[in-house]
Design goal:
mainly alpha
């Protein structure tokens, strides 16, 4: 009974933190969207979307790999830490160089190049450090600290944007706005480095396993071993961003920055809704699923089956609420310039039951063989998404992008279900 109470308290804490974090992100985007207008807002958001896309590779899949390997090996998995952090450092450097080259030699204006220079490295490093610290706190089941960590970046961005547009200037400048956003990420990096010192020193307070340090350390892995184990997680993260967020980037290049800005308004509303399954599975349940997959298979399967039913019903309910509420609130919150967001939301709302259900199904793909099958499903979906976007965006603009997103989510949940049915149970 005590364990159930602790679990419920932890979940409530994570949800409160996540909703507050999502609320801050939402308000920050509302302020920028209203003050910048659709074109400049779309321009700024497209750059952040590019950095988010490459950051999934910069992590090298290490945060999710930590959850799996510590779930399997317990404290023995300390042997992987130095090699994985070295790989992450190299990955950040290489991707930074690629991003700079793309900024200078791609089809970009001078303002785009300057924005990339000010934004790319702090935001990229901040995103990577954020994910690594999240994994560490999940392993320790320090949900209070995790809740505060989730709040940090969006709180800083909200404060900066609020001060910038209300006090510091009447005439905005995208470069100055970007410098402030970069400084917020630098603060995150500083806190992140201090947090990771403990795991480097072997002081991880791992939950669900023996806390004894009197264990015989197994052979230390090489960088090649790390890459072989973590690359499926890196690919999964990259492919997720491709089919979920590449629409914004493609809209900027194939249609217009204004179209990308309008689409992103619907995107951030959808992102707020997706917090429901994401927090439960990715923040609370995932470390336990890695452990149960090895040590308690019956519990692993029962949680999966119950989760499918609950997530599908919850997704349908939330979709209905979006249909009823959003058309009335969009003009009030964002202004008349974003009235064209409403039909996009009506299309994207259809994705909600698919995403809720796929969050439950994909949670069981934690074993190495099933993780590779998950990556294949996501690869097919990402390829389909990009091809459809290239075809439909020049014809139907952001309406075509929204329809493509729904098709992609539907295909993915079907592929996930068929794969789980065949290979998991």
């Amino acid at each position: 009974m005590h364990k159930i109470s602790l679990a419920m308290a932890s979940m409530i804490l994570l949800y409160l933190s996540s909703f507050l974090t999502g609320g801050l992100a939402f308000v920050t985007n509302v302020i920028m969207a209203r003050e910048l207008g659709p074109e400049d807002y779309g321009f700024f958001i497209a750059i952040l979307a590019v950095i988010t896309l490459v950051s999934s590779f910069a992590t090298a899949g290490v945060p999710h790999f930590w959850l799996r390997v510590f779930g399997q090996e317990g404290r023995q998995a300390i042997r992987w830490v130095k090699s994985t952090l070295y790989l992450v450092s190299v990955s950040i450097f290489v991707i930074s160089m690629v991003l700079v080259a793309w900024a200078y030699w791609g089809p970009h204006s001078l303002i785009f190049q300057n924005l990339i220079i000010w934004l790319f490295f702090p935001v990229l490093a901040g995103q990577v450090l954020f994910e690594l610290v999240v994994a560490k706190l999940q392993l320790e089941e320090k949900y209070g600290a995790l809740s505060l960590w989730q709040l940090l970046l969006n709180s800083l961005r909200f404060l900066w944007v609020s001060v910038y547009f209300s006090i510091l200037t009447d005439e905005y400048d995208l470069i100055n706005l970007s410098i402030g956003v970069s400084l917020c990420s630098i603060v995150l990096v500083i806190f992140g480095v201090f947090s990771l010192k403990e795991i480097l020193q072997g002081k991880l307070k791992l939950k669900g396993h023996s806390q004894s340090n009197s264990y015989k350390l197994l052979r230390k892995p090489t960088i090649k071993n790390v890459i072989e184990e973590s690359y499926p997680f890196a690919l999964a993260g990259f492919l997720y961003v491709v089919y979920y967020q590449s629409d914004i980037i493609l809209l900027k290049y194939l249609d217009s920055a204004e179209s990308a800005g309008i689409y992103n308004v619907s995107f951030i509303i959808l992102g707020a809704v997706y917090l429901f399954p994401a927090i439960f599975y990715q923040r609370f349940l995932l470390p336990k699923l890695h452990r149960w997959a090895v040590h308690d298979k019956a519990k692993f399967i029962s949680v999966y089956q119950a989760g499918n039913r609950i997530m599908l019903l919850a997704g349908l309910g939330v979709m209905g609420i979006i249909f009823l509420v959003v058309p009335a609130i969009i003009p009030v919150i964002f202004g008349d310039a974003y009235i064209s967001v409403i039909p996009l939301i009506m299309i994207l709302a259809l994705c909600i039951p698919c995403r809720f259900l796929s969050s439950s199904i994909e949670s069981v793909f934690v074993e190495p063989g099933n993780m590779k099958r998950k990556v294949k499903c996501m690869g097919v979906t990402a390829l389909l998404n990009v091809i459809l976007n290239i075809i439909v965006i020049p014809i139907w603009g952001n309406i075509g992008a929204a329809a493509t997103t729904f098709i992609s989510e539907l295909v993915l949940v079907i592929l996930f279900y068929l794969t789980a049915r065949k290979h998991v149970y």
